[in-house]
Design a protein that fits this description.
Blueprint: H1 2-20, H2 28-31, E1 40-47, E2 52-58, E3 63-67, E4 71-79, E5 85-89, E6 92-105, E7 109-118, E8 123-137, E9 140-150, E10 157-161, E11 166-172, E12 176-183, E13 185-187, E14 192-194, E15 200-203, E16 207-219, E17 224-234, H3 238-255
Helix pairs in contact: 1-3
The structure holds calcium ion.
Length: 256
């Protein structure tokens, strides 16, 4: 599972490098010498209508690293089917987390990966990762996500998005919505299904200083959902991105 996660991180890194040409935005708040180890960079909460359980990942729990041509990035991950993170509150076992990961890359890119199981009651989950960075003017946003629903009980299942029928949101500067995606899901007995909403990109007019990737959904009792969401904010000019992509393709050809 660790290797799979590393693969996802590597894919996102390559995507980021291709789109932006070069890593040009510093992650001073995330990986710089003044970064606060207590800063929460990833949070998950579960609510069953009676109680709420939360788990937070601070900067200090993860690692900063850098790779040539990509720049610096922070990441943290957890995967365990047998020993999940239990989200509890008010003496209740509200939901389980079997997988959770986040990475924040220069340029910047914010991504979250999750695997959760609802408790004995229908459970609402919120999983969110956020990063701030030096202001960018009129950048291009790229939102990409996918998630799944599996019924484990044999009574069918539903996943209902918390953003007006969508379960993933890419937002910036705190509360400004860039794009919502990933439709409501439903399955029959022991069924499994996956969201099909396409990726989305577009120019964000004005100054952008933070990016947030959030999943929010209600999940039927004891059922399972997993997903990946990525929000990239690519500095202009966009032509640099095309040149970067072309350069990467040429580099790949040369190395074959
Ligand atoms: Ca079910």
């Amino acid at each position: 599972m660790w290797m799979r996660d590393r693969g996802k991180v590597a894919c996102a890194l390559v995507g980021a490098a291709a789109l932006s040409g070069s890593a040009s935005v510093s992650l001073a708040d995330v990986c710089g010498p003044g970064a606060d180890p207590n800063q929460v960079l990833l949070a998950i909460s579960a609510n069953n209508g009676q109680n709420t359980g939360t788990f937070e990942v601070t900067q200090g729990m993860g690692q900063c690293d850098s790779e040539p041509g990509v720049g610096e990035f922070w990441f943290w991950s957890f995967f365990s089917q047998t020993d999940p993170i239990v989200l509890s509150g008010g003496g209740q076992d509200i939901g389980h987390v079997t997988g959770l990961a986040a990475s924040i890359m220069a340029d910047p890119v914010v991504s979250v990966v999750y695997g959760v199981q609802a408790g004995v009651l229908p459970t609402s989950f919120n999983i969110s990762s956020s990063a701030s960075f030096a202001a960018m003017t009129n950048p291009t946003g790229v939102a990409s996500a996918s998630n799944t629903l599996t019924d484990t009980v044999g009574n069918g299942g539903t996943l209902t998005g918390g953003f007006g029928g969508k379960s993933f949101r890419a937002s910036y500067n705190g509360t400004f919505v860039f794009h919502d995606s990933e439709e409501n899901l439903s399955v029959g007995a022991f069924g499994s299904t996956q969201s099909t909403d396409p990726d989305f990109s577009g120019v964000i007019t004005g100054s952008v200083t933070s990016a947030t990737a959030t999943f929010d959904f209600a999940l039927s009792a004891r059922d399972i959902s997993g997903g990946t969401g990525v929000f990239q904010v690519v500095p202009e000019p966009a032509t640099l991105g095309l040149l970067g992509l072309a350069g990467l393709m040429m580099l790949r050809r040369r190395t074959r």
